[in-house]
Fold these 2 entries.
Entry 1:
Amino acid sequence: MTLRLYNTLTRREQVFIPINKKEVGMYTCGPTVYWYQHIGNLRSYVFSDILKRVLIFNGYNVKHVINITDVGHLTSDADEGEDKIEKAALREHKTAKEITNYYFEIFEKDLKKLNILEPNIWCKATEHIKEQIELIKKLEEKGYTYETSDGIYFDTSKLKDYGKLALLNIENLQAGKRIEIGDKKNKTDFALWKFSEMPGKRQQEWKSPWGIGFPGWHIECSAMSMKYLGETFDIHTGGEDHIPVHHTNEIAQSEAATGKKFVNYWVHGAFLNFNNEKMSKSTGGILTLSELNNKGYSPMIYRYFLLTAKYRSQLNFTFENLDNAKNTYERLKRTISSLLENNEKSKNADDKRINEIYLKKFEEAINDDLDMPKALQVLWELIKNEHANGKIGTIAKMDEVFGLDLLKQEKVSAIPSEIMELVNQREEARKNKHFQRADTLRAKIKLLGYKIDDTNEGVRVSKI
């Protein structure tokens, strides 16, 4: 089978050809760990997990790197505003390290709940300051940098193909509207190193050849990806919002420093929309995985929901859509459970066989730019075909890509819907700071024979 992927850099589907025959280097832009990751953020990691699983399914050894941004990401996503980590530390009266460790641990747990395969390497920006400084020095030696009152900047005008990933029209971008650019020479120039306004005040700052400060957001990904995957590697993934700025700047600084192509395949996932707008922390209305779970939607239901759309298509989140996915997933699990029971009763070897006809259809779907809706359709066709053999073995093989625990036998939670409704009412009361009503609802739930535990991962409900 030949894997085809849509490459943002070329704006077309291409046959995937790795640099090394059976080895694939893959880098995924990780989170800025200053707050909980919402379900929109998590869509990006499910998509990259599917890509990784498809590569493994095709026989490749994947070296997967995910970065953790624990310094340098400013509130504007560019070069203005406060550092998100420093701001969170002040808000929560904690150290920056406490903030980043806490939110990273929750992020890791969310990935495990979603059956997302762990990367070979987690790399934190704060643990790679030396590599980032060395990369900036290399850019300085080649004449790509200049100093302003607040930092060291990359001069984008010195790179002829700057903006090629996003197809930026620099002239129109520059002339489009008046924007305060401070000491920057060009609107598209970006910070490589930011000076501390008041050295000693920031929790996270380091000495450098240019003064005490901290790295820019973009430089960390270039420095860390090239350290672990080489100056040119196979695949870089991330959300589509990274295309115009973050990934564009990664390419610029990396290729300016090395004189080589940075990445061969740029693969981007689309947004999860909420009320037809991008789900984001800044717009509000976000949901975490734990909040979904508290409302009766397991992580596997959410994963199934995401697989019903192609990764490059924007997906609109509504509870009606999620309910449809829940009903379909639970019906799928019940059907497979019956297959397992019948197979056990008949004591045949069906679970060891593979249905090559359906597996081939499945492979064609997943290798067609990760067409998961089509792959799910093939799964349902197999299950519904009364004359098909090798169902269990083939489902097991397909689930190596789906990651949906399709053959996992599990007891369904016996928490009644009326109890969950009271739990949801209590959560709403707490959210609106109606604490007396929340306590009343908790007491009512207890009288009905159930207890509530408020944990860092959300509310847990269990029978007394």
Entry 2:
Amino acid sequence: MNDIEFQNARDMMVTNQLRPNKINDLLILDLFRKIKKETFLDEKDKGIAYSDLDIELIDNRGYLKNLHLAQLIQNSQIKKEHKVLHIGGLTGYVSTIISGICSELTVLENKNSLLEQLEKNIKYLKIENIEIYNQNFQNGFHQKSPYDIIFIDNPIQKVSDSIKEQLNSDQGMLIMIKKINENFSHAYKIIRDQNNYTEEYLFDIFTNFELYKDKKDFIFND
């Protein structure tokens, strides 16, 4: 596909996948239309960049369907002044979208092959409000906390109190995907009010992705 064909595919993705499913934030739609997802993919996956498919990159991790990514981002209600933590940056596609909405973005990635591509892509795009760290996902990143939004866009079994405590105590929001079984997950948002946390179910996600396998150190408060 050439540049014009990719642009047409992006336009069709917005028209046929996002808009009919209540993605109505104009800034989000504009970012999905403008950001070249194919740039963040291996050659073998570029042709399906704008299809209604998950794209696996490594070890059961990858980019969810475009609609699910847009739903997660829209539900996060990111504002220009927000400070955001993105856990699991992959090669930078979702991070690039989020960086176009928020003030400051911290991105964690701990797979060296992905980290190299992530850093290369962010440098190439000259994005100045992203800082990238090679960090254990389970611990979050206390050094830059508190965060207005913590964003986790691959499923996890449970979320730690440690990560939730990194939220802004005044309405900080965690967007996450809780793995229910091998191929099925629920998207949630968790809002912090001082030491209280309220949880809201958002939508179903059918995927076999999982951000990490270590389940021992996590407690999910239902």
